[in-house]
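Explain this one:

_____
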Amino acid sequence: MNLEQPMKEYTHEGHAVYSCQYHIVFCPKYRRKLLEGDIAIRLKELFLEAQKIYGYTLIDCEIMPDHVHMLVGIKPTERVTDMIGRIKGYTSHILRNEFPTINKRVPTLWTRGKFVSTCGIVSLEVIKNYIINQKGK
């Protein structure tokens, strides 16, 4: 799913300018292959709905049968783990109500675990050199 949004657009809000993107991965309980067909389609719709409710920006996502990859933009005032919890809670509640077969296969839809990585436009080495060379300019 490519939502055709620029990868590094800066947000101006109050007295802050920011661009915070995260690569997030999470899985269904027991890594069951539940995220296929109508469930996968509905999950993508829910990710788009949830961004309006919780204030994140869905840049891209890919749903595999046994895990989800998301690329999201989140305000720097938000804790990434809290946002993931909101997304997982929202999607789990709705999917379990709409697809009762999920309840028969797993006690809860999502595992407690998650993977999070920040995304940057430049490497750490470039940033280090930029900071080091500030006095020389």
Remarks:
- The first strand starts at residue 11 and ends at 13.
- The chain has a mean pLDDT of 89.
